[in-house]
Write a structure and sequence with these properties.
This protein is mainly alpha-helical. It has seven helices and five strands. It folds into two domains: 32 residues, no CATH class; 91 residues, Aspartate Aminotransferase, domain 2 (3-Layer(aba) Sandwich). The chain is extended, with a radius of gyration of 20 Å.
């Protein structure tokens, strides 16, 4: 059985390799290796991320950048920050498994929206929104081909908001 819920490999010798690498890290600088970084990320890292996010001309201030401790943490922080507890969210038919688990823990109802190989269909989202009270959209491109269509589809869906 292959458990796809967690996205890290289980390979032969992994535990020994991991133990050896941790020992090397601790030997190099024991204090720094166990200290937590600044909450939300260092100023330097947040500024670098803000610069990268601002490449398209839409300026993102470093104060609006938050580093999380992985994907699961980022998803939960996003759901809580937007205030989605007990709300309805339109999602792609194939949605990240942990997103489903976290949404359920917050009483969020996920409503699968019809899509195709390029992702969620704007017309299907419009129809869903007219029938049910959908407060937000959570969509993810699943393939390289989908990413090429991503821009125009997102603009079409954003205009519905």
């Amino acid at each position: 059985m292959i458990d796809l819920q967690l996205n890290y490999p289980i390979v032969q010798g992994q535990e020994e390799l991991f133990t050896r690498l941790l020992r090397e890290i601790v030997a190099a600088d024991a204090t720094q290796s166990v200290e937590l970084g600044p909450r939300g990320g260092s100023d330097e890292h947040r500024q670098a991320a803000a610069g990268w996010l601002s490449r398209n001309g839409h300026v993102v201030a470093k104060a609006r950048v938050l580093f999380c401790n992985g994907g699961h943490h980022a998803v939960m922080v996003s759901l809580l920050a937007v205030g989605l507890t007990g709300r309805r969210v339109a999602v792609d038919p194939v949605t990240y498994g942990n997103f489903k688990t976290q949404a359920a823990s917050l009483g969020i109802e996920l409503l699968p929206c019809e899509g195709d190989e390029q992702g969620m269909k704007p017309g299907a989202l419009r129809n869903m929104a007219s029938i049910r009270s959908v407060c937000v959209l959570a969509a993810a491109s699943r393939s390289f081909r989908a990413r090429s269509a991503w821009s125009w589809r997102w603009w079409a869906m954003a205009r519905m908001a």
